[in-house]
Amino acid sequence: MIARFLLPGLLLLALLSFSPAAPFTPPATLTLRINGLPIATDTLGSRLFVGADRTLRLNVVRANDPDGEGLTILIDRFPLAPGTYAFQEILSGHNRDASYRYGEVAAYSKSCPDNPGVVKITAVDTIHHVLTGSYHCQVCESGRGARRFTMTGAFSFPYEEE
């Protein structure tokens, strides 16, 4: 007789304590190295955009300059698929370049006589809107100084559609 009341009570308790699972949100990771030195990034201010015209724009913001521009990489004709997208293709009509701003420093890939740069996309998750990959580029200061910066990093980061 007790079992007759116990079983429905346990089922009711289980149903009342059930809550739907929160939607899966992959962790956002984004790294930046400048000339080999790790730089902390601001994952809240950094952005990864995929445009309706199939343009990829990666904006990596430094943690110590959350309102700054940081590093911006632009890749056009991006098919939202894994692959390697090289900066040398600027000469072939593609618009692929990188720029970096931090304080008084302004540097661009097009300012370098040799501007090797590449974005490698290793995974595309269109359900959760996450791109995974890495980047490597060189940018050169314009004007006096003409310092060269090698920027490298990796990401597994949500993208926004523009």
Automatic annotation (TrEMBL):
For this UniProt record, the keywords arranged alphabetically read as follows: Signal
Residues of the signal peptide:
1-21
Its recorded name reads: DUF2141 domain-containing protein
